[in-house]
């Protein structure tokens, strides 16, 4: 059985990878699909191409995982790809309420089922938004994201990280 793990993945986190790795053990094949929403244009830190490249690198060790993108309704993508299972990760009860609504709508309009996978407790606090915030101040995000995302964030905020490293060097000398 094949499944789709949709999201914006801006950037992909260790929580995403936890859910994806576990889904890859359950399903024959999982397609990670970066959903491109034209109305959210300019609200992502990374371009669609950058997010796809990061995901390709982060998932290279998972032989039954592929990466794709789609612009439009997820149920239309599911129909085109002839896939009937959506994977969604849950971190907290607040995620469940929102995801339950979406799952019901997707089943109603697209006849697709949603399987929820709880994120491991250690990743329940990690979100792409929080990771971007920490990285924007040059904070250590290495445990919260796969290496590919950490490298992309360090490139994106290179000036902040360089400034922070320079400050550490001056403190060590003084």
TrEMBL record:
Localization in the cell: Cytoplasm
Cofactor annotation: Mg(2+)
Binding site for ATP: 8-9, 16, 89-91, 99, 123-129
UniProt xrefs under CDD domains: PPAT (cd02163)
Annotated site location: Transition state stabilizer: 16
Residues annotated as binding substrate: 8, 40, 74, 88
Gene Ontology molecular function terms on file: nucleotidyltransferase activity
EC number: 2.7.7.3
Pathway stated in the Swiss-Prot or TrEMBL entry: Cofactor biosynthesis; coenzyme A biosynthesis; CoA from (R)-pantothenate: step 4/5
Residue ranges of every copy of the Cytidyltransferase-like domain listed in the record: 4-133
Leading EC class: transferase
InterPro entries given in the database record: Cyt_trans-like, PPAT, Rossmann-like_a/b/a_fold
Keywords assigned: ATP-binding, Coenzyme A biosynthesis, Cytoplasm, Magnesium, Nucleotide-binding, Nucleotidyltransferase, Transferase
Pfam families membership: CTP_transf_like
Keyword Transferase: yes
First-listed, main subcellular location of the protein, grouped into a coarse class: cytoplasm
Keyword check for DNA-binding: no
Catalytic activity: (R)-4'-phosphopantetheine + ATP + H(+) = 3'-dephospho-CoA + diphosphate
Taxonomy, superkingdom: Bacteria
Subunit structure: Homohexamer.
Function: Reversibly transfers an adenylyl group from ATP to 4'-phosphopantetheine, yielding dephospho-CoA (dPCoA) and pyrophosphate.
Protein family according to the UniProt entry: Belongs to the bacterial CoaD family.
Protein name (record): Phosphopantetheine adenylyltransferase
Name of the encoding gene: coaD
